[in-house]
User: What shape does this take?
Amino acid sequence: MKKIVVCLFAISMLNSLAAETLDLNGSKDDAASNLRTYRFFSGMGLDVKSKYDEGFTVRSGGYNIMIYPQATRDTGDLIVASIAFPGAGKSNCISEDLQMIIGNANSNYNYMTCFVDDDGDIVLRYTLLFDKTLEPKTVNKWLKRIEVQTDNFTGKFGNRLRPFLKK
Assistant: This one.
């Protein structure tokens, strides 16, 4: 009987967490939005890793995803997610061959943006725009979509990108 009560309590707690929504209204700045979003993701039971002033890392689908929440008053709130593949170095920044691959990737995928950062890392960026509140179901679907798109990207371009990645 005790096991059943404990199980029902645990299910009740999970359901109450799942019913929570993220609301960035009233966040005075991006740091406050980050803290709210970090707590929201943690409360959902996601594998939240390191927290930084401007964002945090969540492990999903085998990827370390940097999350950067941004609250805006006029245009809705957004969460930017980035997955970085360590590059072979700053020479990636000026490689015409790599820029051609990235241009090809960006024309093939409309849900993500691919670019080379200042350190030469290859970065995939995804954005989730929402109005006022965000439900856990939407976050889970978004993270799954990021996983699928990243898998597709690495499957299609992985061999061509290999020379530009850190060995």
User: Anything to note?
Assistant: The radius of gyration is 19 Å.
